[in-house]
Amino acid sequence: MTTSTRGVAKTPAVLVLEDGRIFRGRAYGAVGATFGEAVFSTGMTGYQETLTDPSYHRQVVVMTAPHVGNTGVNDEDMESRKIWVSGYVVRDPARVPSNWRSTRTLDEELDAQGVVGISGIDTRALTRHLRERGAMRVGIFSGDAIQDDAALLARVQEAPEMTGADLSAEVATTEAYVVPAIGDKKFTVAAVDLGIKGMTPHRMAERGIEVHVLPATATVEDVYAVNPDGVFFSNGPGDPSTADHPVSVMQGVLERGTPLFGICFGNQILGRALGFGTFKLKYGHRGINQPVQDRTTGKVEVTAHNHGFAVDAPLDKVSETPYGRAEVSHVCLNDNVVEGLQLLDRPAFSVQYHPEAAAGPHDAAYLFDRFVSLMEGQRA
Ligand SMILES: NC(=O)CC[C@H](N)C(=O)O
């Protein structure tokens, strides 16, 4: 629920966590009330890409970087058509953005898109609280939406949880569309959109791939109707344990042995398609500075992450699955969470993090080349 708008720098705002902890600050962006899962991102840059990543749907993002908005907002760094976060928390917003590409301030953009935020709170204390107690539901209330604390807490405790949330259909395209190859077309890929970021088809297009982006409801027949050389499953919001439909579509692709690549939600779907479980992490991984080891090469990459769930697969052995042998290909060096899976008998792999970057380092871009190699191998 959002009510109104500008000139809000002094409008009071309250952030209420579901366990009763309260922070008081000032309105940022739109004035009103909003709810979501409170999560923190450690990215020092790339707020525009974060805000427009559909995987953040129904999440209230706390920025650990203390000063946000310095480079304003431009029209080039959007990862989708709109801001998806349900609320935004910053300590000290930039008063004067400065960047040659900037056309408006972040405060104005949040307001124009009806996104309720809060500023001027101790984001370090809030982040430590979430790290100790875990991600939880939160509400932000400003202006006329402020009531007494007990009433606000009751509203937060009625808000839906992230566990069990099935959200892809709320963010994904409803119509199929094509992202043309840049330069000579070498391959066709069917990309199942579960909440795809714009940079992902772009990274494929740069490699001569024509990408047919299909709705989350696409069937195995829809996938094969585009005559693909490879099939891709995207990132997306929500709890992977609800994603039964994409899991069954992926199983159809694995049965046929078409080269397959998945990112983030796509990695969780591959985990489920192979028979592994998924579980909710205490507070998740969000940021652009997470160390991941590629266990095939031993190399460590610094990578972009945004996930609250993870695959429960054994790190120390090769697993037998209905589609042959599978192993954990990548692992997070902070906490040993599974960050990638690969099949040994079929051309299929996935990663839990974001090789497309946007924002983030480009260390993992080689994974798009790996997908191309799989498609080349299938042709040879
Ligand atoms: N970026 C993503 O695809 C996130 C996947 C899933 N929603 C999670 O939070 O783990």
From TrEMBL:
<keyword id="KW-0547">Nucleotide-binding</keyword>
<feature type="region of interest" description="CPSase">
    <location>
        <begin position="1"/>
        <end position="187"/>
    </location>
</feature>
<dbReference type="GO" id="GO:0004088">
    <property type="term" value="F:carbamoyl-phosphate synthase (glutamine-hydrolyzing) activity"/>
</dbReference>
<feature type="domain" description="Carbamoyl-phosphate synthase small subunit N-terminal">
    <location>
        <begin position="11"/>
        <end position="141"/>
    </location>
</feature>
<feature type="binding site">
    <location>
        <position position="55"/>
    </location>
    <ligand>
        <name>L-glutamine</name>
    </ligand>
</feature>
<dbReference type="InterPro" id="IPR017926">
    <property type="entry name" value="GATASE"/>
</dbReference>
<dbReference type="InterPro" id="IPR029062">
    <property type="entry name" value="Class_I_gatase-like"/>
</dbReference>
<comment type="function">
    <text>Small subunit of the glutamine-dependent carbamoyl phosphate synthetase (CPSase). CPSase catalyzes the formation of carbamoyl phosphate from the ammonia moiety of glutamine, carbonate, and phosphate donated by ATP, constituting the first step of 2 biosynthetic pathways, one leading to arginine and/or urea and the other to pyrimidine nucleotides. The small subunit (glutamine amidotransferase) binds and cleaves glutamine to supply the large subunit with the substrate ammonia.</text>
</comment>
<keyword id="KW-0028">Amino-acid biosynthesis</keyword>
<dbReference type="InterPro" id="IPR035686">
    <property type="entry name" value="CPSase_GATase1"/>
</dbReference>
<feature type="binding site">
    <location>
        <position position="238"/>
    </location>
    <ligand>
        <name>L-glutamine</name>
    </ligand>
</feature>
<comment type="subunit">
    <text>Composed of two chains; the small (or glutamine) chain promotes the hydrolysis of glutamine to ammonia, which is used by the large (or ammonia) chain to synthesize carbamoyl phosphate. Tetramer of heterodimers (alpha,beta)4.</text>
</comment>
<keyword id="KW-0436">Ligase</keyword>
<dbReference type="InterPro" id="IPR006274">
    <property type="entry name" value="CarbamoylP_synth_ssu"/>
</dbReference>
<comment type="pathway">
    <text>Pyrimidine metabolism; UMP biosynthesis via de novo pathway; (S)-dihydroorotate from bicarbonate: step 1/3.</text>
</comment>
<feature type="active site" description="Nucleophile">
    <location>
        <position position="264"/>
    </location>
</feature>
<dbReference type="InterPro" id="IPR002474">
    <property type="entry name" value="CarbamoylP_synth_ssu_N"/>
</dbReference>
<keyword id="KW-0067">ATP-binding</keyword>
<dbReference type="InterPro" id="IPR050472">
    <property type="entry name" value="Anth_synth/Amidotransfase"/>
</dbReference>
<feature type="binding site">
    <location>
        <position position="308"/>
    </location>
    <ligand>
        <name>L-glutamine</name>
    </ligand>
</feature>
<dbReference type="InterPro" id="IPR036480">
    <property type="entry name" value="CarbP_synth_ssu_N_sf"/>
</dbReference>
<dbReference type="Pfam" id="PF00988">
    <property type="entry name" value="CPSase_sm_chain"/>
</dbReference>
<keyword id="KW-0055">Arginine biosynthesis</keyword>
<comment type="similarity">
    <text>Belongs to the CarA family.</text>
</comment>
<comment type="pathway">
    <text>Amino-acid biosynthesis; L-arginine biosynthesis; carbamoyl phosphate from bicarbonate: step 1/1.</text>
</comment>
<protein>
    <recommendedName>
        <fullName>Carbamoyl phosphate synthase small chain</fullName>
        <ecNumber>6.3.5.5</ecNumber>
    </recommendedName>
</protein>
<feature type="binding site">
    <location>
        <position position="265"/>
    </location>
    <ligand>
        <name>L-glutamine</name>
    </ligand>
</feature>
<keyword id="KW-0665">Pyrimidine biosynthesis</keyword>
<feature type="binding site">
    <location>
        <position position="236"/>
    </location>
    <ligand>
        <name>L-glutamine</name>
    </ligand>
</feature>
<keyword id="KW-0315">Glutamine amidotransferase</keyword>
<feature type="binding site">
    <location>
        <position position="306"/>
    </location>
    <ligand>
        <name>L-glutamine</name>
    </ligand>
</feature>
<feature type="active site">
    <location>
        <position position="354"/>
    </location>
</feature>
<feature type="binding site">
    <location>
        <position position="309"/>
    </location>
    <ligand>
        <name>L-glutamine</name>
    </ligand>
</feature>
<dbReference type="Pfam" id="PF00117">
    <property type="entry name" value="GATase"/>
</dbReference>
<feature type="active site">
    <location>
        <position position="356"/>
    </location>
</feature>
<feature type="binding site">
    <location>
        <position position="268"/>
    </location>
    <ligand>
        <name>L-glutamine</name>
    </ligand>
</feature>
